[in-house]
Amino acid sequence: MSFDKLKDEVLKANLDIVEAGLVVLTWGNASGVDFAKGAMAIKPSGVAYSELKAKDIVILSLATGEVIEGDLNPSSDTPTHLALYRAYPTIGGIVHTHSTYATSWAQSERDIPCLGTTHADHFSGSVPVARNITESELAAYEAETGKVIIETFQGRGLDPLDVPAVLLPHHGPFAWGRTPHEAVKNAIALEEVAKMALFSFLINPNVPAAPKALQDKHYKRKHGPGAYYGQESDRR
Amino acid sequence: MSFDKLKDEVLKANLDIVEAGLVVLTWGNASGVDFAKGAMAIKPSGVAYSELKAKDIVILSLATGEVIEGDLNPSSDTPTHLALYRAYPTIGGIVHTHSTYATSWAQSERDIPCLGTTHADHFSGSVPVARNITESELAAYEAETGKVIIETFQGRGLDPLDVPAVLLPHHGPFAWGRTPHEAVKNAIALEEVAKMALFSFLINPNVPAAPKALQDKHYKRKHGPGAYYGQESDRR
Amino acid sequence: MSFDKLKDEVLKANLDIVEAGLVVLTWGNASGVDFAKGAMAIKPSGVAYSELKAKDIVILSLATGEVIEGDLNPSSDTPTHLALYRAYPTIGGIVHTHSTYATSWAQSERDIPCLGTTHADHFSGSVPVARNITESELAAYEAETGKVIIETFQGRGLDPLDVPAVLLPHHGPFAWGRTPHEAVKNAIALEEVAKMALFSFLINPNVPAAPKALQDKHYKRKHGPGAYYGQESDRR
Amino acid sequence: MSFDKLKDEVLKANLDIVEAGLVVLTWGNASGVDFAKGAMAIKPSGVAYSELKAKDIVILSLATGEVIEGDLNPSSDTPTHLALYRAYPTIGGIVHTHSTYATSWAQSERDIPCLGTTHADHFSGSVPVARNITESELAAYEAETGKVIIETFQGRGLDPLDVPAVLLPHHGPFAWGRTPHEAVKNAIALEEVAKMALFSFLINPNVPAAPKALQDKHYKRKHGPGAYYGQESDRR
Questions:
Q1: Digit-coded pLDDT (tens) for C28-66
Q2: How far is the alpha carbon of A72 from chain D, nearest alpha carbon, in Å?
Q3: Nearest alpha-carbon partner for D89 in D38, D158, D125, D13
């Protein structure tokens, strides 16, 4: 049972978030999953991106969280990734960053409202901010973080593929997708819509959300059976 | 009848908007027209810029919108481009982006006022924001978007070569020019004046528009029979 | 009488302002002067920086403004540069840009106050904004712009080497120095202090100016007989 | 007694702050110390980073401040660095910059509050702004600056390794660490948290500090005996 393809894909996702300017120092990690093999691949903890190789990517059991392959400690955020994959079998890749603007919204404890089509192309409605972790939850901090994300999506009745990102208050964003590559694209889109949302509010503090029908139109141009954006081969 | 030169020109315009930092992911497209041949050339939909080749540029009939040459789907914004070329025979190139600052003004539903000579060198007066698309117009969204732009320019009595850009509310900017290359330059100028306008308002919330005589002086330094900016060979 | 050295120096200054990120499209120009030869060298008008060669730099008579050497039109801002060199024999180089933050202050009609040592190291006191050009002055716009700058410095009792920059309202900055290279450094410093001043006001709308004694201390660390910053060979 | 290793380490730290975008022109300097040899290594004053070589790094006596090795003047900020190493034997490297956002907070005379985990991972609690230098202290400006930093940490009961940075009002930041490399990382983190803190306040002017328990959790994930972030070999 080889994990080489998964490792390559996860390595690429980790390098892509650096290339996209979402990462300062070592603040970020990307993972991918192979449900058939019951395995998750993730960046090792605290390793400089410039030195990261495919062989450094850590493979863990999705069921137990134990390391299957790899000599390094997995990302300290591993339990959060595991919790999300276990809850959502439609997700194939997860990206966590401290990207500047998304993190600023997270620090501000504010949902990012859908102000335009850039947002609507990727996220159906607001990108939600989760609730704060309680003091007692800090003992199993990273696992509880995963639970709080799931609680947020359940409480708001959201499908994680319709809203493929969340903000953790006073921490930063997680984004995901059907593959690690799609998770990277959603993390990039999130940072850009977070930036534009701040600037829009500075230009017009009373800026309304985009009309709901326009939001839906754009989301459906790119997603679902009636999608007509892109080439047929790229469609979900 | 060869479209090679048009394809090269439109390919370059698409790559130039990426090089200029106006594009995130695949959010943007540039087109060009050959009125003599009755044809428009445009970027294919959803194709990564890094892989874009001249042969991927799609050629469509200006009259019918049908694909004349090319194996890929044209940009989903094609009907908007077609509508503009049909209405304005002085326009030879169109650029659509989601560039950060221009999109933030568009999301804010605010015209970009002419605060200085950087703006006046490219745009005569404010860059207008169009009205919102109505729900019933969403059925033919991209074609109606073109109509709304034309309605905006007619309603305000604007010549599209004097104000070579528009903001679509909750969406983003379109810019144009006599050639695809000039459309790119106007898209770059638009993003920069959008950025400066935001910063100017943050410095001085009561900033007045630039004096009208100064605006006209700068616009006419670069445009029209008395222009004296640049080399003679570059003049309109 | 060869102008090769002056052309090289002015070419380098023009390329350095692009390299420093102060220039979008062709919005900017740098010049240098050789008082002994009675000549000024300046960028040609509207030429793309990527194609600029030393032989394109235009040499003009400081006395008459007539072209001595060069096949291209000089920058349309030439009369402003000439006016400044004629008024101030201590200036050897001038840079004009539309750099984002300095232009935003210029558009806002606000002096940039001295909020810290970064500012004080280069500019003694506020960077002044000149008055608006009157409508009747627009007939000889660029020459009058030079006069308005001189009027500003005379009216405020400023030595142009102590405050080597000015903001033209609704236009942008001019910076200068003893050489074209020093003018470039002052243009870079101006853009950075303009940026920091905006951010400082956003953090604290009531931010006071830096204490006057601290301003003077820093300015004198770098300038004048008691300077002790840098290596002896670099001192004025 | 060779200082080659120390010079290499300090050269690298100086180049790294440029690479990280913390430096404009020559505004910044990094130093390192070898307590066993009683020597400090620091950047020479006013030398362009692009020309900086290991042999240009100046070695001074920690006890007397006299130059031991090197042909160039040491940084004018040398007395500040000496004062910090003399007061805090746990510090092995110091970085001074005028990085844009940290300097804007310094100019605003405001502590940077801990708004999130990005901050808490590096700094335990707010990054303090020191008091203004008095006029009489300006005579020995750089040495007094060191004293004011120490006074700030003593007055607030702070361990410089728990809060490895300070803001000097109307001037800019100093950051430090156990090594020059760690000082660079803290200077990078400081700039990023300063940026995020500004944006967070713009999004939500009433943003609360991160919950204290979350701050402590994150700080302790990375520091101290219970740390579990990164690989064992990287731990303090």
A1: 999 999 999 999 999 999 888 999 999 999 999 999 999
A2: 7
A3: D38
Separation of alpha carbons A93 and A84, rounded Å:
10
Place of tokens 């500003």: C152
Q: Please give the angle made by the CA atoms of B78, B82 and B83, to the nearest 5 degrees.
A: 120
Q: Are D170 and C116 in contact (CB under 8 A)?
A: yes
> Contacts of residue D118 in chain A, CB cutoff 8 Å?
27, 98, 103, 172
Q: Flag if C135 and B211 touch (Cβ within 8 Å).
A: yes
The residues, any chain, with a CB within 8 Å of residue C21's CB and separated by 6 or more, are C99
Element (H, E) at C186: helix C180-203
- Exposure of B172 in the CB half-sphere (CA atoms within 13 A): 27
> C101-159: per-residue pLDDT in tens?
999 999 999 999 999 999 999 999 999 999 999 999 999 999 999 999 999 999 999 99
Cβ atoms of C141 and B217 within 8 Å: the answer is yes
For residue A166, give the H/E element and its range: strand A165-168
Domain C4-234: CATH architecture, name and number where available: 3-Layer(aba) Sandwich (3.40)
Q: What is the Cα–Cα distance from B80 to B27, expressed in whole angstroms?
A: 15
CA distance C96 to chain D (A): 19
The secondary structure of C103-138 as a DSSP string is HHHHHTT--B---SHHHHTT-SSPBPBPPPPPTGGG
What is the signed CA dihedral for B216, B221, B225, B230, rounded to 10 degrees? -160
Please, which chains are in contact with A (at least 3 CB pairs closer than 8 A)?
B, D
pLDDT class of B236 with cuts at 50, 70, 90:
very low
The pTM of this model reads: 0.96
DSSP state of B43: P
